[in-house]
Prior knowledge:
Layout: E1 6-11, H1 15-25, H2 31-35, E2 39-45, E3 62-63, H3 66-71, E4 77-80, H4 87-97, E5 101-104, H5 107-124, E6 128-129, H6 140-147, E7 153-159, H7 162-174, H8 178-187, H9 196-199, H10 202-216, H11 235-243, E8 246-257, E9 260-271, E10 283-290, E11 294-301, H12 305-321, H13 323-327, E12 341-342, E13 349-359, H14 364-374, E14 379-383, H15 392-395, E15 400-407, E16 410-411, H16 412-422, E17 428-438
Parallel strand pairs: 1-2, 1-4, 2-3, 4-5, 5-6, 9-12, 9-17
Antiparallel strand pairs: 7-8, 7-10, 8-9, 10-11, 13-15, 13-16, 13-17, 14-15
Bound molecules: L-homoserine.
Amino acid sequence: MSEPAIRLAILGLGTVASGVVRILNGPNSPVSCRAGRSFEIRHVAVRDTSRPREVEVPVNSLTTDWLAAVSDPEVDVVLELMGGTTIAREAVLAAIATGKHVITANKALLAEHGNEVFAAARKAEVCVAYEAAVAGGIPIIAAVGRSMTGNRIVSIEAILNGTSNFILSEMLGKHRQYEDVLAEAQALGYAEADPAMDVDGTDAAQKLILLTQLALGKKVELKDFPRQGIDTLELADMLYAEELGYRVKLLAVARVVGQQLEMHVEPTLLRRERAIAQTDGALNIVELEGDAVGHLVMAGAGAGQMPTASAVVSDLVDVAIGRAQQTFPQLNLWQDDSGLTVMSADQIQRRYFLRFNVEDRPRVIAEVADILGRNQISLASIIQHEAPEVDASENGGVPIVPLVIMTHRTTEGSIRAAEASLAQLSTVRAPHVRMAVAD
Ligand code: HSE
């Protein structure tokens, strides 16, 4: 190899960074051959240099001085794999300011500070590559940014959080407790350092923001669209969904409807026969629709050490051969030139799954149906399982039973208005569960 080695500063040596080192150090690794250059790890910036590490890095490369690492004029590329949005932001901006290309897996950083980061990179004529930030090992950024450029993309439906998908699959398949499965997802390296972002829908929403920016040219912020996680979901509702022929998934959607962009991340019922409903464990899946190519589906490991490292290394090869430097300026990242406006939550139209806990007494279903009807909501099916015959006078109260309703297509605004009225009924008790249905 006649070309000089590419010199790296790696920020962080956690799960993903260790996977990257493992690939680069691997015997017979094809990476250098594909890049036409070898890679030299100059610096690895960590919080504590004395901690035992799962991979070997060059002697004296470990440092706590991330600023010196990114500013070293002998470094060509900075791999930001520390996560977070404070030091990571400063480090990425410092790397760009000193002329380094940056590779990052940090969707929180790009979703929050993409504006600043991409503008700085364009100005400094360096590139920021982020394949690992969306859908783990699935090469979705390359597919959208490079291979679908002949299309106007009109729809994205995706499972983008491996931790949530793993939890849902284990809860449904093995009836395991939420907390146990979450602890296992952390042990397996799927979850973020703070897993709250995984289970409350934030991580998936950040990835959807990045994908929407790239695919639809629309800059959207977290506050602009509805987001709900799986942290409040009950197994009972997943089982009712199964009974109705559906599976519950944390679904991320961005869809062009006229001049508007419908966007949301929520637990959603999907027909069981759909590929997206059958995507289990820590897998992710992205279904795209382009006006020329039609439907396109990509699935694979969405979380975990080696799949995410695979995406980081693909960016590294792209930078080494100069491809990323050519495509980055053309991607128009974080410029808003789509002409789309984000649809308000109330206007979103779809079917809904509703569950109420109701008193098992005369007229209750009639009252619920009446309120839904007065809000122009038509019922598609109702489940109320037979409750035991109880004598209220002997038991000191009326039994409470779950009432599950599938609606026909309606708006989120109508559902919210109906829910406000239903909350006034003394016969309808909390919790009220509402989930979207994707047809
Ligand atoms: N914590 C993420 C997930 C993986 O569970 O999907 C990294 O994006």
